[in-house]
Amino acid sequence: MTTSPPRVRRGPEPHEHAEQPADSRAGLTARITLGRAMNSESSDYFLLLGITLFMVVFGLVMVLSSSAVESHNDTDNFFSRFWSQGMYALIGLPLMFIVSRIPMAFWKRSIWFILGAACFVQFLVLVTPLGVEIGGNRNWIRIGGFVGQPSEAIKIALVIWLGVVLSRKQDLLDDWRHVAVPVLPIAGTAIGVVVLGGDLGTTMVMSAFVLGGLYFAGVRLRYLFTGFVGVAIVAVVVAMSSASRMGRIAALFGGTSAANPDVNWQIDNGFYALASGGVFGVGLGNSHSKWSWLPAADTDFIFAIIGEELGLIGAVVVLLLFVMLAIVFLRIIHASTETFPRVTTAAIMVWLVFQAFVNIAVVLGVIPVLGVPLPLISAGGTAMISSMIAIGIVMSFARQNARDARRTRGNAL
Question: pLDDT per residue over 378-403, tens digit each?
């Protein structure tokens, strides 16, 4: 009987244990790191990110549609305003992600400087030739070829300042003096420098989110009611101090504005745009109102173009987007274990949702024309960037909530 020779195991082939190329290892490491980073985020983080990106893209499409005619008339280029808005979106997107990685300790250390710097720039608008007046409001600054609104920076600084200060005083807020002393001089000054520029719409938005931050901090309702009455009185005084603003109020009730006769034309054509849209709209890009009939079609009255081109369905979708945004904010507020992120998130929520309400209410003829953009959708560079930075701050709080939840689960095991 023949026996077969014993099998001798061969050594490894040269390629079996060869090292992978350096670029392959680097790519694999990057994918693993990115995967871990994405897995570490909470569902609230991704919901907020997804809603924000959808609104920005939707806004760019509507800016292109609503501004093409005026862009061609101004620059002989149908895409000029769209490219400008797209550039601001490309600036705001990385800023949003960068801010979402900034720890809360940074804001607590630097907020006084940030708020002071923002107010100083707004002061330059009022007293130096750098200030630019548009539509009766001196609320823009021009440096070289750049034109922006410092009031948007004040918004960001003020919502963070509210969270920092109220978190430090959370055990003292039952005493009205501990509410009034920081809020009246500091927040009042920040809002005051915007009031001096004549921008009543931005002033109302800032006053609303200050009251909203106080509410979520646990300030008593009678103190908030007193503050609300005070804000209402100041708003009436500011409105009566300008012939342009009084004309806008008169136009709301069917009168005419001698100081700003285009207001009646704008309101009427906003109604015509919404009425012609019906339920399903006339189709994207087919608006008649944007052919130089409706002033500010891509900014303050973009909701009218949405209603005309996309109909009632498109208008309801926009409303639902802001409802969803508010729901995600409330989820993040509920998950927060500290006062600072809770108050700051609440103030940002009131800022964006209340500003959307004001913009839509103006188009629907519920309140006088105030000139505030629809957040994340209307054309407007600094408004777009400030809104995305504010959302980035909330995203950082969502990340912190996820880390706190994992730490709590780990301690429970």
Answer: 998 899 999 999 999 999 999 988 88
